Amino acid sequence: xxxxxxxxxxxxxxxxxxxxxxxxxxxxxxxxxxxxxxxxxxxxxxxxxxxxxxxxxxxxxxxxxxxxxxxxxxxxxxxxxxxxxxxxxxxxxxxxxxxxxxxxxxxxxxxxxxxxxxxxxxxxxxxxxxxxxxxxxxxxxxxxxxxxxxxxxxxxxxxxxxxxxxxxxxxxxxxxxxxxxxxxxxxxxxxxxxxxxxxxxxxxxxxxxxxxxxxxxxxxxxxxxxxxxxxxxxxxxxxxxxxxxxxxxxxxxxxxxxxxxxxxxxxxxxxxxxxxxxxxxxxxxxxxxxxxxxxxxxxxxxxxxxxxxxxxxxxxxxxxxxxxxxxxxxxxxxxxxxxxxxxxxxxxxxxxxxxxxxxxxxxxxxxxxxxxxxxxxxxxxxxxxxxxxxxxxxxxxxxxxxxxxxxxxxxxxxxxxxxxxxxxxxxxxxxxxxxxxxxxxxxxxxxxxxxxxxxxxxxxxxxxxxxxxxxxxxxxxxxxxxxxxxxxxxxxxxxx
Length: 496
Ligand code: AHR
Description:
Immunoglobulin-like; alpha/beta; 25 strands; 26% strand; binds alpha-L-arabinofuranose; 7-stranded antiparallel sheet
């Protein structure tokens, strides 16, 4: 039996965990909006045409911020198409995902949904085919207080007053050649600065996210981020970064260590943020918005694009297995460990498109990654603690030796300790000791996500194959939990 210890101390903390790291992302793509969130003809539709079954499942995940409306989609989206009487809205050709956009769901439908769900809206503006002025007008439409034609239009369009939009992304993945309106970092920097300037003139309270490198494999990685941040200067509150991990090689052992990539990416992006702030002699540094993350590789071929004209297309409907769920848990643990620099993170996406929830007609399926995400709910308030790891390591093809047990811990103000741990080994059980500087730890709740076969998926035929379950853990001065191979453990203790 292998042993590992998490050495924690209540005073050795990294920073307050920003609730916004538990965000989601809803894009007009495939069946995410149409047939996912919004389906007026569904047996589950509410008075707003939204699917109550989908919203109830998402409610279990308690998302904080919700990024909208794209993604690649936004770079050819004009927000005015999606407001006003539905019958007057245009149906447009949508080039990013090769479909049509009927615009029956738009700004006000989304904002009213946010009011009902409690999601805080995070909008991305179109810096592909859109202009700085169009972006500023959107801020005025959602947040403006002065009586202008634009805000009067909002009052006509909204059935009730909705929340304002506090957070805005300056475009999406503008470094990627696939992006509509793709440009160089210096061209982007100029356009983003112009948009940021106008947007903050309209509403100085908004926060802005600069579009950073979308893929660390891109040749412009880090240079793009530096140039864009330098150009946007003091308007930049956050720098966006994205990552989709994959298991193309089918090597479970290697895949289970790939969460190390996230720590590395955060460290590299953070160094650019600090460098740019230092060079500006500025005490205001941009923080990280990890505003797209997930596992995605089985459906990256974009099958369904330009398909048969059916709307909406079944696009990138990845079916996840247990290994993917364990990697998703590693993403969130990494964000927690880096609480001092990662302030926002959005799983991409929330329904049907690379998502924890799938629909099929009136049926709904909770995927394996849903189970992992649910284990963070009610266990996420407080300060992230430094985690001193002692124990076995595993060799990773890309990251050298990594801890066999990947972990994170949060201490809440009322003395509750939340602990997460992924046993990354494919065949080794581990005895994990949790030591909060000798404090007595009384178990409040304790769960595990495990299945003997890591490639097991939840399917329509077997929807509950991989499920979290209660896990017995003893009260102790340093409780010892026995983690089976390839498993995810989450627990809350009361420390005395
Ligand atoms: O989330 C799916 C797509 O992945 C987004 O539209 C894009 O930003 C990223 O490449």
